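Internal tracking record. Fields below are filled automatically when a chain is submitted to the structure queue. Please do not edit lines marked as system-generated. If the sequence contains nonstandard residues, flag them in the REMARKS field before resubmitting.
Queue: standard
Priority: normal
Entity type: single polypeptide chain
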Amino acid sequence: MTEDHIAKEGSMKKNSMIKAAAVTGAAMTAVLIPLGGTSYAAGCNSTGCDNKGPVSMNCDDQYTSTVRTVNNNERIAELRWSSTCDAAWVRVHNTSSNPTYNAFGYIEKYNSSGTLLKSLSVAVPDSGNDWSNMLGGASYYYRVCISFQGNEYPLKCSTKF
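SYSTEM-GENERATED OUTPUT FOLLOWS
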């Protein structure tokens, strides 16, 4: 074999490797980029959602609804229910024109006998929004409550859902 022939063969192998790498890279990119309209599976379900975040677990999707609302002097607690995850949480809006006091939202989980099993809370400073972690299970009952620092107004709670 001549030196030209060896150089040409080496160049052809190099080009083949570059093309293979480009095709592999393109294939990997196609796998990693989600297509429009792609849905993501929920990260938990039922009691497996207890004390997990609704956003991080993909439970705050189009199947989430507000099933109860409580207003305590412009501090609003919403009982949010995800049918995708069979879990609930409290979302708090502090919409007061005098948001000096933090708003505190609570979600409570009850069994069929009315016994409180678990409770989670979230504090919302000044004006703004935030939500608690979830409590899960379709066979339980849930309610939300709202209060705020200073206790000028008593704690207000929703009916159970």
